[in-house]
Model the fold of this input.
Amino acid sequence: MATLKDIRTRITSIKSTQQVTKAMKMVSAAKLRRAQDAAIQARPYAAKLKEMLGSLSTRVDTSLNPLLSARDEVKSVLVVLITSDRGLCGAFNANIIKLANKIVTEEYGGLHREGKVELLCAGTRGYDFFRKRGFSFEKAYPGVFQNLHFTIAKEIAEYASEKYLKGEVDKVIVVYNEFKSVLAPTLKSEVLLPISPEQEEEEEKGRGSSSDYIYEPSPAAIVDVLVPKHLNTQLWGMMLESNAAEHAARMTAMDSATENAKELLRVLNISYNRARQAAITTELSEIVAGADALQGE
Done:
């Protein structure tokens, strides 16, 4: 049975931990607001760019750009995994790593055993997990969220495009957490390459099949400009979504930890009071027994 000193020590320790978790929750809440605003502000531009590319792909030959052409057979895959750099955010990293591991070892298990699946990790947690399990990386970005910048997303998109154009990979998949609400992120697995832009069917019906455009300087030149912008923007948006989802997950986890500490303190205080009352009762009983013994003499 724990002594009064042990219980007091544990109560002091839990109070200190509770102060830390409460402070971390407030910090994550402040960071979440900025990260959420950045993710939301990036969505309209990315959506409009995707819409323009989809509309253009219905009017021009998609073979003008190899990144728009799907391969007949997928012989090699590049998986881009976006995780956080820090922990203490609940199951945020565990869930996305589990999904990425399933894609690598199960969905493309045959290619993985042949060494035809390459993994690119943006974020320390995913990098550490797969590095410890013997995965080799041609390129990795641990610590990227310490100073998140658009140039990182652009560099990753250019690397994936170069691999695809050289024929070293036939498909590029991005696995990340999409920010939907503070309560829980949404696990996402999207094909970055080849690009398959969504066609605006309603828009096409409204225009009619006879509409045509004059492209300056040329359709190929326009596609060559839009495709890299689209890739950079899509990947940047995914990283912003993951960043916002991380802060939301950490804020929720720290809030739960603070509430758990509060409940644990309540239980420990009850135990402390009971132990203290028992000690007082025992002491009184000893005093009474001593007094009776003196009177008996």
About this structure: Residues 200-210 have pLDDT under 50 and may be disordered.
